[in-house]
Amino acid sequence: MSVAQRAFYSDANVNKDEDLFSAAEKIPAVKPEEKIAKSAGRPRSEASRQAILDATWKMLLHTSVKDISIEGIAKKANVGKTTIYRWWPNKVSVVLDAVNGQMMFPPAIISGHSAKEMMIAQLERFGKTLKGRTGRIITEVFAESQGSQDLLEIYYKNFMLQHEEILANIIEQGKESGEFAMNADTALVVDMIYGSVFYRLMSNPESIQPVFFDSLAVLGLKVLSVYKAAA
């Protein structure tokens, strides 16, 4: 006997000797409005996804990244853990998406100005992303990712990559325009600048102030000038 047949025969209102199709006729038809309700799963899924991000952000405001768990996020968002894993592979991914969704800063200036001006503007812009609690969250996520290549890759892809690409693009424009030396090592300069930022974040986060980014921009421009002088 098939699973469907056993399901029909287990109903108290269905006689075991009754024809299967006759029994099926007794099943009430689904009303049109019920069909609509059942097909509305996607909006509910999107609502659940947003609830997860909102819950994560609220937790981040008063809880360290280390003390947040998938279980805690699921409980606060009133969803199951499987719902979270449907979109994110781990806690770090959820946290970074929640942070990115809350960041409000002007778009990068990547044209229409000198490379020097754009470089200074980009570092000011990056500095704004690291102010206050947001900066602490980014630092905590970075610390949480240590020791796991997978988490570091997620951190790099979801947060740092966009900033590195912008700065690298500006430096390349400066090389093409003659502002910077053609032999300047773009990747090395980018690493020098952002590496300095994260060293400060880990060792002395209170020093991450606008004046620090101004000094960093000056240093970066001097390095590019040294390349030009040595060319």
Automatic annotation (TrEMBL):
Stretches of the chain forming a coiled coil according to its record: none
InterPro entries recorded: Homeodomain-like_sf, HTH-type_TetR-like_transc_reg, HTH_TetR, Tet_transcr_reg_TetR-rel_C_sf, TetR_C
GO molecular function, one term: transcription cis-regulatory region binding
Segments forming domain HTH tetR-type: 46-106
Cited Pfam families: TetR_C_11, TetR_N
DNA-binding region in chain numbering: 69-88
Keywords: DNA-binding, Transcription, Transcription regulation
PROSITE patterns from the UniProt entry: HTH_TETR_2
PANTHER family: HTH-TYPE TRANSCRIPTIONAL REGULATOR RUTR, TETR-FAMILY TRANSCRIPTIONAL REGULATOR
Name by which UniProt lists this protein: TetR family transcriptional regulator
Organism: Micavibrio aeruginosavorus
